[in-house]
Write a structure and sequence with these properties.
This protein is of the alpha/beta class. It folds into 3 domains: 41 residues, no CATH class; 270 residues, Zn peptidases (Aminopeptidase), CATH 3.40.630.10; 155 residues, 3-Layer(bba) Sandwich (Glucose Oxidase, domain 1). It is 37% helix and 23% strand. The chain contains 17 helices and 16 strands. The radius of gyration is 25 Å and the shape is elongated. The two termini are 43 Å apart. 49% of the residues are buried. Homodimer. The monomeric form is inactive while the homodimer is active.
Length: 487
């Protein structure tokens, strides 16, 4: 039976607007979805809620949850291409996939931005052993940190454990020279936000080899960046200082780190044997993948949304950051699917080389400056594909206040937590290059993120379809508001 537009509008309004207390009570009966968290109709409604906007957002989420394509796109990316470290053949396959996926979605323009990227390869599987003073060896789980040099065969030496750079600095040279420095600062599990715990520990991964090499050590061993207690080492990028001797750097699983720490207490003279064949190869040509819907009224005002296409090589790069890529594509597809024609240009970008160089983000910003583009805002999804919470904002107080005014529209979808905070690594260069009014990071429930982050566990089966599609809907909703009203 054909449904009239008036009937459809009535149904949409019923879905979008608050119910009365009596209606809420009836709807909460067994077999129905409770709506008691919604405000009663006899109370003042939330400010800054436009009914037309509310209806449009409802349509976006209906499309995302019933016809969403993020999950299927992620399945293809993860299971047919998999790990896609910058410079690898799989990274190029991912570029081709991204371009074809955007073209299939029917964007107005799809194109590539050339960028030169590092090419680091892991080589054969790493080997790590704790060797007792009597020569007994215990194998432990290790992996090379990204950009590290290899060991040139087996490297065996004593171990000195520290939990901070200040602690290392206080040690006499004789206690460090010729040994591995073992950086064993764990996540602070008292912190509610895992990202804060990560930020409080990750400097030892990034700078550990520099500080160890500066003191005459032969290598750096770093506790994996996770609070999970398991035998899955987590990789991630490290760096060197050309003025300091380069030494190999490896991550220990948290179980291996705990075991090494305990054994060192009983036997300070034990040794560690490490073998890694990783190496840095010449740079390779790669690409950012860009798709656009051209603005109908202000085509030169750009709203960017993106994730990074590259991933570490231990798994499939599902949550980091396949989810961000497919959500960015899906956000634009959703806008088209509901018939919304943005007044401002909306651009989805799959950035290359976030993990070990940020070359894609830097090149994108450089081209935006070169082309004298005006960017209203930039949104990044790089915190996993978990349940939406809202958005983190880097911008002026006025921009933050404007975004917070839209919170009531996002509240029914649990995406209304809008606060100042880190937005994302790939969009950071835009701030200096063209100065958008706000950098915005999609914020989701990250409690499980660092369990899989940069490890062999970051696989497609770890992603929940509804959580993923809700995230794409949340991003599309914010883009709709930005494209309609500006900032």
């Amino acid at each position: 039976m054909k449904t009239s537009w008036k009937f459809a509008l009535t149904v949409s309004l019923a879905l979008a607007l608050p119910l009365s207390a009596a209606q809420a009570q009836r709807a909460a009966k067994p077999g129905r979805v409770p709506v008691s968290e919604r405000p009663a109709a006899d109370k003042p409604g939330p400010p800054h809620v436009n009914v037309a906007d509310s209806l449009l957002l409802r349509r976006l989420f209906d499309e995302a949850l019933t016809k969403g394509q993020s999950y299927e796109n992620l399945r293809v990316l993860c299971l047919t291409i998999g790990a896609r470290l910058s410079g690898s053949p799989q990274a190029q396959q991912a570029v081709d996939w991204g371009k074809a996926t955007m073209e299939k979605a029917g964007f107005d323009k799809v194109y590539l931005q050339e960028v030169m990227v590092p090419h680091w390869v892991r080589g054969a599987k790493e080997s790590g052993e704790i060797v007792s003073e009597k020569g007994k060896a215990v194998k432990v789980a290790v992996c090379a940190l990204g950009s590290s040099i290899g060991t040139n065969g087996k490297l065996k030496a004593g171990v000195v454990e520290v939990r901070s750079f200040d602690e290392l600095k206080a040690l006499p040279d004789a206690a460090v020279r010729g040994k591995f420095v073992f950086f064993n600062r764990a996540f602070d599990d008292r912190l509610i936000e895992p990202g804060q715990a990560y930020g409080g520990a990750v400097d030892q991964r990034g700078r550990g080899a520099i500080e160890a090499g500066r003191r005459g050590a032969v290598g750096a061993l770093v506790r994996s960046m996770t609070s999970a207690r398991d035998d899955n080492p987590h990789t991630g990028n490290m760096r060197y200082d050309e003025a300091v001797p380069k030494v190999p750097a490896a991550a220990l699983s948290t179980k291996a780190a705990d075991e090494l720490s305990q054994l060192l207490k009983a036997a300070p003279g034990l040794e560690f044997q490490l073998e890694m064949s990783c190496q840095n190869l010449p740079e390779e040509k790669s690409y950012n993948v860009v798709g656009e819907i051209i603005g109908s009224k202000y085509p030169k005002e750009v709203i960017t949304v993106g994730g990074h296409l590259d991933s570490w090589d231990l798994a499939q790069g599902a949550h980091d950051d396949g989810t961000g890529c497919v959500q960015s594509i899906e956000a634009l597809r959703l806008l088209r699917a509901v018939g919304f024609k943005p007044e401002r240009t909306v651009r989805a970008v799959l950035f290359m080389n976030e993990e070990n160089g940020v070359r894609g983000g830097t090149q994108y910003a450089a081209l935006a400056k070169q082309n004298k583009e005006t960017h209203v805002a930039a949104i990044e999804s790089d915190g996993g594909g978990f349940t939406p919470r809202g958005f983190n904002v880097e911008g002026s107080p006025a921009a933050l206040r404007q975004l917070q005014k839209w919170a009531p529209l996002l509240a029914p979808y649990h995406a209304a937590d809008i606060n100042a905070g880190h937005a994302g690594t790939d969009i950071e260069p835009l701030q200096e290059a063209v100065g958008p009014k706000a950098l915005i990071g999609y914020d989701c429930d990250s409690q499980r993120y660092f369990d899989v982050h940069h490890s062999a566990l970051d696989t497609f089966d770890q992603v929940n379809r509804r959580e993923l599609e809700l995230g794409g809907g949340s991003m599309a909703a914010l883009i709709y508001l930005l494209a309609k009203y500006g900032l």
